[in-house]
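User: Show me a protein chain along with its predicted structure.
Assistant: Here is one chain, sequence first, then structure tokens.
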Amino acid sequence: MQRIKYRYSALYKEIAAFPALANFQRYTEEWAWILYNDSLDIKQKRKECDDLIADIKGFPRGKQVFTVTDWHPIHPEEENPMLTEKVHSSTSKLNFKGKDLLLAYEVAQLPSQRNLFAKRFRDYPNLFKDEVFGPTGESEEIYKQVPAHSDTCSLKDIARQDPVTEFFINNLESMYTWVSEYVLRRGKKLKDNPEMAERDDGVAVATISAIVEVLTCLCVPLYMTITMFLLSCFRSTKVQIAILAPFGTFFVFSLKVMVGPLPRYELFAITAQYLAVLGIFIGASSTGR
């Protein structure tokens, strides 16, 4: 029994350090069922109140129909104790529906597990056995999916990155595995150092993001310099302007890939500045001939 109690303690400790590793079911189907059942109960209780109001002597008769919303607490409760009890029961159920609805909304807004942590969760040692998810005894199917199942959520999300950073974050482990196997096939390093082969320290997301940012900073001046160099190789102004078209187009796509989602006006403004600088360069080189 003691062994079972602490069987998954390592997982729980890792989730405490990295909440994005946790993967839980949202039970959206059950939440929808609860909310619709709440609506049926509210409808039934309102009907009961409306029926009682129809029999109250104090309300005028005629073509006008009075409902529960025409009754207010200022009406003497002692005259209609049954109606008062029904109204309180109805409002109580309405309050419960509001709480259920708000809670269901908050559950639906919880972040989906990112692929990086979904892979780690799927491959976690001793977490899945005989097609069963160990901590709950449920089927492993919904918990082992990568990308994560749409009805599962995590406790925390990591910041969204640009496409290049996302690519390295999601594929770094696969790249590391491939490189390790390549080195092993060649009989280098890892063959002579078993401890190195067993290490699996991983790389922090912040480290990957910092490396990509440095590479981006290096690419910007390099790309501008290459463009100017190619423009200087041609004396014809028309050819130089024609060269700007593919380079400008590539510049726009590189912004989308290396910077991430940008508002259209920012994308237009940055591209215009890039082309303006090169246009000045072309004009200055033409004047100097």
